[in-house]
Amino acid sequence: PGETKCENSGVSTCLDDGSDFGAPVPCAGNEECLDGACITLCELAEILQPSSVGCSFYAMKMDNYTPSENDSLVVGNISADTQAVVQLYRQAPGANSETAVGNAVVVPPGGVQAFEMTGPEIDGISARRTGGTYRVQSDLPVVAYLHSPLQSIYTNDASMLLPEHALRQNHVVASYYPWLTNYYPSYFDVIAVEDSTIVTWTPPVTTNAGTGVPAVTANGTGQVVMNRGDTMQVVANNHIDVSGTIVSANKPIAVISGSEIVNVPAGVKYADHIEEQMLPLDYWGTEYVGPHAPTRGAESFHWRIFGGEDGVIVNVSPAQPGFPLILDQGEWFEFATSVSVIFTGDGPFLPVQYLEGKSEVGGAGTGDPSMYQMVPVEQFLASYTFATGTGYTTTYVQIIREQGGANVLVDGQQVTGYYNVGNYQVSDWVIQEGYHTATSADPFGIINIGYTPATSYAYPGGMQLAEINPQ
Q1: Residue among 178, 192, 124, 169 nearest 371 (CA)
Q2: Alpha-carbon dihedral of residues 221, 222, 226, 232, nearest 10 degrees?
Q3: Are residue 252 and residue 362 in the same domain, yes or no?
């Protein structure tokens, strides 16, 4: 008696006399039955297959070359038949709690909503702030992306956001050499999601002091205490690069790294903003497909490989100069190639691709620097929903599947035009701006890339968040 079970989308309870189960009590519209209890779809997204889908996402306005432009937190409703109710919250600089921004927005099935983030950003300096964050809360699982800014201008980039429940404690920063003409620094940002969060960082270069932030010499360690909704930016001293900084905390944090504006390679026109929310070390893998970005001309494709623990051996196919590598945690190796590659290692590592400035691409006249992480093949999914930027001349979703794998459908249309990369296949599939779905019977990977004259953006379109490298 009293035992429960799931039946017909509801919960049935064993009768007092133990003779049978009673009629099922239906779960609410935003609930499903799991292990004899009704739980919300938000809870279900955390339990069954944790991924980049969630119900609460944090972001902050990024330090971009164009501070007058607002960033956007873009939310996509992954449901095909149920509307999502989404509320934007802001914890203003100096505030100890968040407040709602306007009314909740109803996002239709398969719909997208862009919420403007007016800032202010932490502009070009190290600083710790009380508050400074934005957060979206949905009653149904959604996906979220940070665009800085959303509309195509001349210095853009974007990042896939991780849901609050998937944030973890240990990170390695990826950035790039800052623009050499003036001081627009390489940096990383930290968002705390719990009170009394102790954040430490060990940079390979000197980082600057600022309000609430100590100066740290190369290979030294800095420390601050942050509360929920607080933000911090740490910038490199002079024209150097914070890549390889190890950022850790005693509680989950979000780490978003980048640079106000960079040339890739250094000194090559034109410059652009770069950013990525860094994947916590828990989600790093040992095998990655590294498809080069859709070609614009005769460009090279620039890579940095970051070590996730000491003594990791990393190799690449086809062979490239400098490999195999031996990397310690936070160490990185940079190379350029004209081909797509497969990366393998005997421990956790992370490849990051950098798009080249448009003057190096043989006169194609489109795109510019962007930075984006690869997703380990262990973290591929069989279904994605994703949203693009706006105002780009050409937008792609790169599809990565195993050779001989099941067909992939984007918005119901079968993807074709694959080329081989080792035991995998890649298609540079052109899409229109807006909301899209990609599905298959087998796990596969996706990357979203947009080009327009003098700017671009790129980010992984989604991923599973299994703790394949527990910390």
Answers
A1: 178
A2: -120
A3: yes
Q: Are residues 26 and 137 in the same domain?
A: no
Nearest alpha carbon to residue 120 among 157, 69, 192: 69
CB 315 within 8 A of CB 386: no
Question: Which residue, chain included where needed, has tokens 């960082």?
Answer: 201
Integer Cα distance of 41 and 32 in angstroms: 7
CA 168 to each of CA 89, 280, 445, 470: distance values in angstroms, whole numbers, following the listed order:
22, 6, 22, 10
Q: Is the pLDDT of residue 153 over 70?
A: no
Q: Give the pLDDT confidence of 292-334 residue by residue, as tens digits.
A: 999 887 788 999 999 999 999 999 999 999 999 999 999 999 9
User: Residue 457: what residue type?
Assistant: Y
Q: Are residues 247 and 378 in the same domain?
A: yes
Strand partners, 332: 306
Nearest to 234 by CA among 95, 390, 340, 128: 128
Query: According to the model, what pLDDT value does residue 182 have?
Result: 62
Pick the closest to residue 384 from 142, 107, 131, 59 (CA basis): 142
Instruction: Give yes or no: residues 118 and 34 share one domain.
Output: no
Q: Hey, what are 250's tokens?
A: 């005693």
Which residues span the domain enclosing 220? 54-460
Q: Please provide the distance, in angstroms rounded to a whole number, between the alpha carbons at the two ends of the chain.
A: 42
Task: Kindly state whether residues 11 and 152 are assigned to the same domain.
Answer: no
Which residue is it, tokens 């979203």? 448
What is the identity of the amino acid at 158? Answer: A
Residues 307 and 341 in one domain: yes
Domain presence at residue 469: no
The answer to whether 450 touches 429, Cβ cutoff 8 Å, is no
With bands split at pLDDT 50, 70 and 90, how would you rate the model's confidence at 405?
A: very high
Tens digits of residue pLDDT in 217-231: 999 999 999 999 999
Six-digit token pair at 368?
A: 């510019």
Domain assignment present for residue 466? The answer is no
Quick check: is 465 in a domain?
A: no
Cβ contact 328:273 at 8 Å: no
Helix (H, G, I), strand (E, B) or coil at 47: helix
Integer Cα distance of 314 and 331 in angstroms: 12
In a domain, 396, yes or no: yes
Residues 18 and 83 in one domain: no
Q: Read off the DSSP letter of residue 269.
A: S
Query: CA dist 86 to 27, 106, 114, 135, 448, Å?
Result: 21, 6, 11, 10, 24
Domain check: are 301 and 187 in the same one? Answer: yes
